[in-house]
Design a protein that fits this description.
Largest sheet: 9 strands, mixed
Number of helices: 18
Helix content: 40-55%
Strand order of the largest sheet: 1-2-6-5-4-3-7-8-9
Distance between the termini: 69 Å
Strand content: 5-15%
Number of strands: 12
Shape: elongated
Order of helices and strands: HHHHHHHEHEEHEHEHEHEHEHEHHEHHEE
């Protein structure tokens, strides 16, 4: 059979059969399950699909779409595998399939497990003992980025692998923070692992390909398109022990990952946000539906790992002694500093809290910014420096 000619270089017939079935873009999710019941393993599926009479029978009975049958007829397995192998070698890409004993156990049991996992980087991260997905908005607020950084740093320091999708915003901040804190991190892409997406994450992508792990079920050279991302999310949740939602609108891909996590029996955690903030409504809604509200990384550690990991008790922070410079501040300036913290506070809230006039408040805030006492992190939002 044709697969006999391709076997070798570390890949079995079963591996190559899985990779080719994964290559077919017009397959429906249910098609593999139906074909498996008809023919057995992946090698027998491929052998039967490359038989014209069998393919015509499958099409006539509606088992496969006409477009899928046409794609199978036009697919030259020898040429396809030759081109793919060259691309993988030139980009230092490897592949695991369910036929490989090294295929991650976490993914073997999920619905519609990936038939192929292409990857670059350290494959030992597939087998990490503890992992958590940290996901959220591509358009996060300062609050969201701060929380993603805080949770990712603390969890990574405790040996928990951070998994996300390398999207702009919360995802990339989680990856970057894990790396900076000496932790492990996995990026699950919606296109080929030889393509950085978005391009603004090039520095993170390059470092992860060398020192961390970048994976995808899509072949090298496959473009990152919107249709891929929802299905990609089942792998993010599948590899994780739990999923942490940082920020998300009510209609968000982040919530798709939460749905997959729920189906897979994974724990779901949510960082609450301001009720009036659009980017918090999705997470707040998930918390209402039963996700665990967390306001500290310790909450997650205690819930997920119990006594497996040593939990550091948070240290109390002492108020800094008033400096000579602080004594020179006006009463109004001291009043504003007294109500600000390290989470952004909107100017309207500052005015209401102190019953101040708008002009006076703006002037005082500008003076405090110039003195380096506070920072304006978003339009109208201030925190202590």
């Amino acid at each position: 059979m044709i697969l006999d000619e391709l076997e070798g270089n570390g890949k079995t017939k079963n591996d190559i059969a899985n990779m080719w079935l994964n290559h077919l873009t017009t397959f429906r999710v249910r098609d593999i399950q139906i074909l498996g019941k008809l023919y057995g393993d992946e090698v027998e599926i491929v052998n039967n699909l490359k038989c014209d009479s069998e393919l015509e029978m499958l099409a006539s009975k509606g088992v496969l779409k006409q477009s899928t049958c046409q794609e199978i007829r036009e697919s030259d397995i020898l040429r396809w595998y030759d081109n793919l192998s060259k691309l993988m070698v030139s980009n230092k890409i490897k592949c695991l399939t369910p036929a490989d004993e090294m295929y991650p156990d976490r993914l073997r049991t999920i619905d519609h497990r990936p038939l192929a996992l292409y990857y670059r980087g350290k494959e030992e991260l597939f087998y990490t003992e503890h992992s958590i997905a940290i996901i959220g908005s591509r358009r996060p607020t300062h609050y969201g980025l701060t929380q993603a950084e805080h949770f990712s740093a603390e969890l990574a320091k405790r040996g928990i692998t951070i998994i996300s999708g390398m999207a702009y915003g919360i995802d990339s901040r989680a990856h970057d923070t894990a790396i900076k804190n000496g932790g492990g991190t996995i990026a699950v892409l919606g296109g080929g692992v030889d393509i950085c997406y978005p391009r603004t994450n090039m520095s993170i992508y390059q470092e992860m390909c060398d020192e961390q792990l970048v994976i995808s079920e899509y072949e090298p050279g496959t473009a990152h398109i919107s249709q891929h991302f929802p299905l990609r999310n089942r792998i993010i949740s599948g590899l994780s022990d739990g999923v942490l939602l940082v920020e998300a609108a009510l209609r968000s891909g982040t919530l798709i990952t939460a749905d997959y996590a729920l189906e897979q029996g994974k724990s779901i955690y949510g960082i609450p946000g301001r009720p009036t903030d659009v980017m918090s409504r999705g997470v707040n809604s998930i918390i209402k539906q039963g996700a665990m509200l967390v306001d500290s990384p310790t909450d997650i550690i205690l819930d997920m790992f119990k006594s497996d990991l040593e939990v550091e008790q948070p240290k109390r922070q002492r108020r800094k002694k008033e400096t000579e410079e602080d004594t020179k501040l006006s009463a109004t300036e001291k009043q504003i500093i007294g109500i600000l913290g390290y989470e952004p506070l909107f100017i309207d809230d500052i005015i209401r809290h102190n019953e101040m006039h708008v002009a006076e408040t703006l002037q005082t805030l500008n003076e405090l910014v110039s003195k380096g006492k506070i920072k304006c992190v978003e339009k109208g939002y201030y925190i202590l420096s």
